[in-house]
């Protein structure tokens, strides 16, 4: 079985069909999930190996290819895993092996005497799942004045990094001090906001805060620290004001996870012959993931679709013939 996917055509249908190799039927219906399985949760497309019902997702003994679809709300929301993990999905990319989710922003609030009165969401954990934090797309981001925050891994990935953020700086010529302005804060550069990269292979982090002092700058009683999709985050100087950042982000930011088939090692480890092999479609091949151990399946050149399904990779053609 094979299928054909038309991407773009400027010619008539009869001509398209006459151009197809013999034996192929033109079809624009493309399978993305297993037969009988929902391929959507709200407006989020759910491609196999992901699925929302038992029998609809790949079972690697991991929680993660399963998706919980909360249909009790007007626009249903998808969550990672079998239980309400509280990690809401934005989208899944079958080609890049990336899933974008919302991460709740970690914060600390202080009272007037510099006592921590509330701490929340300072930990992120995707252990026992096919997910690792994308080191290419995320940055550990800290917002605050006179703030030093560390990000720490754990277990077999002991790791610690961090950055410091200040809100006043000195003019080296005149020696006078300046507070942060919007111009100076146009990017996350250490003034009011700092960012640092994370290494590959992380599936757990927690945030630790170093020195802070609420009285240091009156309008920044809280500190925020979060791993965030770098491309989607733009620092504004008002983010330093109490509640503003949480208001404008609705307390969460996009965050990118790298998923892969992680049970049978790399492409080299007999993957093609194993009983639970993942790359099922003709015209597909296996490639190692660049984050951690495991592999992804990909349709061969000239084909598009879902390589994790039988007949999932479809011949795709582009006709740009003007007649
Ligand atoms: C789904 O709908 C939400 C809210 O309407 C929107 O913000 C989001 O971009 C949509 N996602 C997709 C994948 O279309
Ligand atoms: C889901 O939650 C139930 C009850 O809280 C628990 O017994 C079960 O182990 C959880 N399953 C997973 C896969 O975390
Ligand atoms: C998925 O990822 C691929 C490869 O990075 C990219 O070319 C493509 O535009 C992405 N698809 C979507 C819908 O974002
Ligand atoms: C420092 O002050 C001098 C003299 O007022 C000014 O020309 C210069 O632009 C200032 N530098 C910065 C980085 O603000
Ligand atoms: C915070 O800074 C103020 C002014 O510099 C100082 O008096 C106070 O002791 C500091 N508090 C802490 C907890 O370090
Ligand atoms: C945050 O939003 C609430 C309700 O929408 C509003 O009352 C409050 O003024 C906002 N705070 C800031 C700092 O924007
Ligand atoms: C898969 O099986 C075939 C036939 O049994 C064998 O020729 C081939 O070498 C095997 N490939 C791998 C990667 O083990
Ligand atoms: C996948 O990774 C393994 C182990 O690092 C390596 O031996 C193998 O050549 C890689 N395979 C491909 C297709 O890149």
UniProtKB/TrEMBL annotation:
Signal peptide: 1-25
One Gene Ontology MF term: polysaccharide binding
Cell compartment(s), UniProt: Membrane
Pfam families: GUB_WAK_bind (PF13947)
Key word Nucleotide-binding present: no
Bilayer topology: Single-pass membrane protein
Keyword Signal part of the UniProt annotation: yes
Cellular component GO terms, alphabetical: membrane
Keyword annotations of the record: Signal
InterPro entries documented for this protein: WAK_GUB
All residue ranges annotated as the Wall-associated receptor kinase galacturonan-binding domain in the record: 37-102
Species assigned in the record: Rhynchospora tenuis
Protein name (database record): Wall-associated receptor kinase galacturonan-binding domain-containing protein
């Amino acid at each position: 079985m094979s299928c054909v996917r038309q991407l773009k055509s400027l010619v008539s249908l009869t001509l398209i069909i006459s151009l197809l190799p013999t034996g192929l039927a033109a079809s624009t219906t493309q399978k993305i999930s297993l037969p009988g399985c929902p391929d959507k949760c709200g407006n989020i497309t759910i491609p196999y190996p992901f699925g929302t019902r038992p029998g609809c997702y790949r079972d690697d003994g991991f929680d993660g290819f399963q998706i919980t679809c909360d249909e009790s709300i007007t626009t249903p929301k998808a969550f990672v895993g079998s239980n309400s993990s509280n990690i809401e999905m934005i989208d899944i990319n079958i080609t890049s092996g990336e899933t974008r989710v919302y991460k709740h922003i970690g914060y600390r609030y202080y009272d007037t005497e510099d006592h921590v009165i509330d701490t929340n969401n300072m930990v992120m954990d995707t252990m026992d799942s096919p997910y690792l934090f994308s080191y290419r797309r995320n940055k550990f981001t800290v917002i605050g004045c006179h703030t030093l925050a560390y990000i720490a891994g754990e277990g077999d990935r002991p790791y610690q990094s961090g950055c410091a953020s200040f809100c006043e700086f000195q003019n080296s010529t005149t020696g006078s001090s300046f507070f942060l302005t919007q111009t100076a804060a146009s990017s996350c550069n250490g003034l009011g906001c700092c960012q640092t990269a994370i290494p590959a292979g992380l599936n757990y982090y927690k945030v630790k805060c170093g020195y802070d002092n609420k009285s240091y700058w009156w309008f920044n009683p809280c500190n925020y620290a979060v791993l965030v999709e770098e491309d989607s985050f733009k620092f504004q100087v008002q983010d330093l004001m109490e509640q503003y950042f949480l208001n404008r982000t609705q307390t969460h930011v996009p965050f990118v996870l790298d998923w892969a088939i992680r049970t049978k090692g790399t492409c080299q480890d007999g993957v093609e012959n194993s009983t639970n092999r993942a790359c099922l479609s003709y015209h597909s091949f296996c490639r190692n993931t660049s984050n951690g151990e495991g592999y992804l399946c990909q349709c061969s050149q000239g084909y598009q679709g879902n390589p994790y399904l039988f007949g999932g990779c479809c011949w795709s053609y582009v006709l740009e013939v003007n007649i």
